[in-house]
UniProtKB/TrEMBL annotation:
<protein>
    <submittedName>
        <fullName>HxlR family transcriptional regulator</fullName>
    </submittedName>
</protein>
<dbReference type="Pfam" id="PF01638">
    <property type="entry name" value="HxlR"/>
</dbReference>
<keyword id="KW-0804">Transcription</keyword>
<keyword id="KW-0805">Transcription regulation</keyword>
<dbReference type="GO" id="GO:0003677">
    <property type="term" value="F:DNA binding"/>
</dbReference>
<dbReference type="InterPro" id="IPR002577">
    <property type="entry name" value="HTH_HxlR"/>
</dbReference>
<feature type="domain" description="HTH hxlR-type">
    <location>
        <begin position="17"/>
        <end position="115"/>
    </location>
</feature>
<dbReference type="InterPro" id="IPR036388">
    <property type="entry name" value="WH-like_DNA-bd_sf"/>
</dbReference>
<keyword id="KW-0238">DNA-binding</keyword>
<dbReference type="InterPro" id="IPR036390">
    <property type="entry name" value="WH_DNA-bd_sf"/>
</dbReference>
């Protein structure tokens, strides 16, 4: 006997979905860039700021602290005068590199199509177009 849609239990939820949990970790635009900056090993604070174009000191600090809290990044303090700080991916953080590289590759191969689809959609559904009234 088939179940009705009202008795069917949801198998997709924010609290149980592995995808949403991972996206919660890496969805910030700076997170991916910071992780990529560390893909070749330890990197100093100043070098990281230079490599990640457009990131402010405040946003960088927030991003690496979140990644450190999640166990993906470790901070190394070098006892120099003044103190130097280096960051690197943990073993857990390194496991994110491959799936992130695959997403980056998907973007390189397909993002042009996404842009084209957006342009097509926007031109079809802008005020004044004959289809615009059909979206509710």
């Amino acid at each position: 006997m088939a179940h009705s849609s009202t008795t069917k239990q949801s198998n997709i939820s924010l609290s149980n979905c592995g995808y949403s949990k991972v996206l919660d970790i890496i969805s910030n635009k700076w997170t991916a860039l910071v992780i990529y900056a560390m893909e070749n090993g330890k990197i100093r604070y100043g070098e990281m700021l230079r490599r990640v174009e457009g990131i402010s000191k405040k946003m960088f600090t927030q991003t690496v602290r979140k990644l450190e809290r999640d166990g993906l990044v470790q901070r190394h303090i070098i006892p120099t005068v003044p103190l130097s700080v280096e960051y690197s991916l943990t073993t857990l953080g390194e496991t994110l590199l491959q799936p992130m590289k695959e997403l980056r590759q998907w973007g390189r191969e397909n993002y042009t199509q996404v842009v084209e689809a957006r342009v097509k959609y926007d031109s079809a559904y802008t005020p004044g177009s004959h289809e615009a009234g059909s979206i509710n």
